[in-house]
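Hello Y.,

Per our agreement to keep a running log of every chain we model this quarter, I'm adding this entry. I've kept the format consistent with earlier entries: sequence first, then predicted structure.
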Amino acid sequence: MNNVLLFVIISVVSGIIAGEILSVVNYFVVEPTTDRAIGYETQRDILKGEPVNLNQIHDYRIWQKSGTFVAGAFIGIAYGSLLGIAYAFSRKYLPFTDERKKAILLAALLYLAIYLVPFSKYPANPPSVGDPDTITLRDHLYATYQIASVTIAVIMGVLFFKYRYISTIKFIVPAIYVLLIASIYFLWAPNPDKIMTPMDTVNTFRALSGITQTLFFLLIGVFFGILWNKFKPHEPAKVTTV
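Predicted structure for the entry above:
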């Protein structure tokens, strides 16, 4: 099989597997908390005298839950492809000789830059938290913060590999990274919305979301590493002659 095609298959398949596992966990673990948060929001609207269509809410949630597994596949493909591209460029620079350990390490670095750092500033909230009028602002804040986090991580990675022969670089780069991450944390505006949902529900949702995302990045690294180690697309394609 062509090595490029094999590389694509490994990236996509590992992403889909991790994405579907994420969907299953979300469906049975996170969604009940989401339902509870939506229930609080509905009760609040009723007490305010606002019109509430319970049937519409019920139908929307059924539609939303039914699309969980399709969404999981697309998310898995996106992150599997991202991991694959990053792995292709950084593989020879990563520590360890075992491909599985390399993949897990890179997945952990992506998790840090793409999810954990943004989560520390803008933690996940259930649907009942957030004014519809501020959704554009909130999306902008999160997206730009995520881009800044990834950019810093890439620059630090390049800096580390370029000067990896300097003995003190392993201390200098992490120190600069922490300084830059702390800087953007204080530069970006906080979430503009006041939380009206009970904090126990919000904190439960955040904890479960954090756990599921951690599991997702771990699994995508594990499956990618297993498949890469088995099929070895980095090795020259074998040519057979008759």
